[in-house]
Design a protein that fits this description.
The protein is mostly beta strands. It is built from one helix and five strands; from the N terminus they run H-E-E-E-E-E. A five-stranded antiparallel sheet has the order 4-3-2-1-5, with no helix packed on it. The longest helix has 10 residues. The radius of gyration is 16 Å and the shape is globular.
């Protein structure tokens, strides 16, 4: 059961237009990093393997392979630290969570690409 007061407080923290992506998409997550008094953008590229939560607590997990080792990172969707999320490619998946990719290595990690119908 949700409380009306919490909904009002959460509305202020939600992004007006959150990024649109699906499970299985390969995305670039642009994150703002503070180093001393300077701010820079760091890009984390990988496959979205999970989404969880709702409202301000909505999170998504991105997985990539670095030097033969799997690296996963969870990002809060509505965080002001997330500058933008760019979808590089979409994949056809039949699961809500792609945890089975953790056991796979090399070419077995690839997902079948989703074809987009051309509009005329």
């Amino acid at each position: 059961m949700k409380h009306r007061l919490l909904d009002v407080v959460e509305q202020e923290s939600l992004k007006p237009d959150p990024p649109q992506f699906e499970i299985g998409d390969t995305v670039d997550v642009h994150t703002r990093i503070l180093e001393g008094d300077k701010e820079r953008i760091q890009v984390f590229t990988g496959t979205v393997i999970a989404k969880s939560g709702s409202g301000t607590r909505e999170m998504f997990t991105v997985r990539r392979i670095v030097a033969g080792e799997g690296v996963e990172r969870k990002f809060p969707l509505h965080s002001p630290r997330i500058a933008k999320v760019v979808v590089k490619r979409s994949a056809v998946v039949r699961r809500a969570k792609l945890y089975y990719l953790r056991k796979r290595v090399g070419k077995a990690v690839r997902l079948k690409e989703r074809r987009v119908k051309a509009t005329t």
